[in-house]
Amino acid sequence: MTSNQPSNQNFASYKSRHLAFLRAVHQTQLVSAVAAYSLRDFPHSLPSPIADAVRDIFDRLVSVINKHDAQPGGNERNLLYRRDKLKAGQARNNQNEEIAVLALNLLLAVEPDKGKKKPVSGMEGRQFQMLARHQAVAMLYAHLDSFVGDTLRAICGVKPEVLRGSGKKQLTWESALSFRSIDDLREHLVEQFVYDAGWQSAPEYVAFFEERFKLSFNLPPAVLPLLNLFEQRRHLIIHNGGLVTARYIAKTGDTKTKVGRELAIASDEVRRVGEAIKMFGSELCWAVGVKFFEATPKDLTQIWKFGPPATKTDQET
Fold this sequence. Notes:
Blueprint lengths: L4 H34 L9 H21 L14 H4 L7 H15 L3 H6 L2 H39 L14 H5 L4 H16 L4 H12 L9 H17 L6 H7 L14 H27 L18 H5 L1
Helix pairs in contact: 1-6, 1-12, 2-4, 6-8, 6-10, 6-12, 10-12
């Protein structure tokens, strides 16, 4: 491909997807950090407007229950969802009230015996921190998967012949004739290609792009092992509620935990895995830009590139 205006426009579109990927990673890390901080001493650490709304709803709930007790066959469990009974006054912040209802529901779900032995704030505070970090890890990999899909679509857009090496899939006459145009058919094939390639781990993505598209990545040695470790942790979070399994320990060698325990993730680990994901995404965008869009250094601004390993002379100076 020779450099021309259309290719520059195509790369600009792909670059915008890369910047959206970076924003999503940063947003996820920020939301995780803020949630862990704001809920560190739940419910006392709730922002004032929400704490006021919690107290207000609790007072109204008690009032409704007192009135409801006189009526036989009442169902107190559904009282929080009867918003027409709980609302009082017109000047109310609906968002604060909605959050307050969720907070109050959580407080009402605490086991009484457990609550007596350990304060609700201490128990829930740690749980919120870990929940925020677990969700951050899951979302960070979701952003990576999404950007890999965007990358494959961008490559297919400028070089559709890459679809020819997608295995021995066959398309029946009936399926082919169901599409209204050749563009619709091509879009279907691209999406099938993206879907089939999306069931890989981060290290497998690297190998896939290196082998299939002859791209090269300049990643620090620690990045792929870190991405692989947290890929396994994501599996625990999504498929086992964050509880450690023997399979996880065997695959990762993580002997600091035990089977059945909740997976512990530190705030610094969320930062490090986020940096590793951004590093891989940036390396991918850079490599694809140069190979398929003939991007120049001017085109590649805002794309972070990891430099070559320092030489002995560099380290000495």
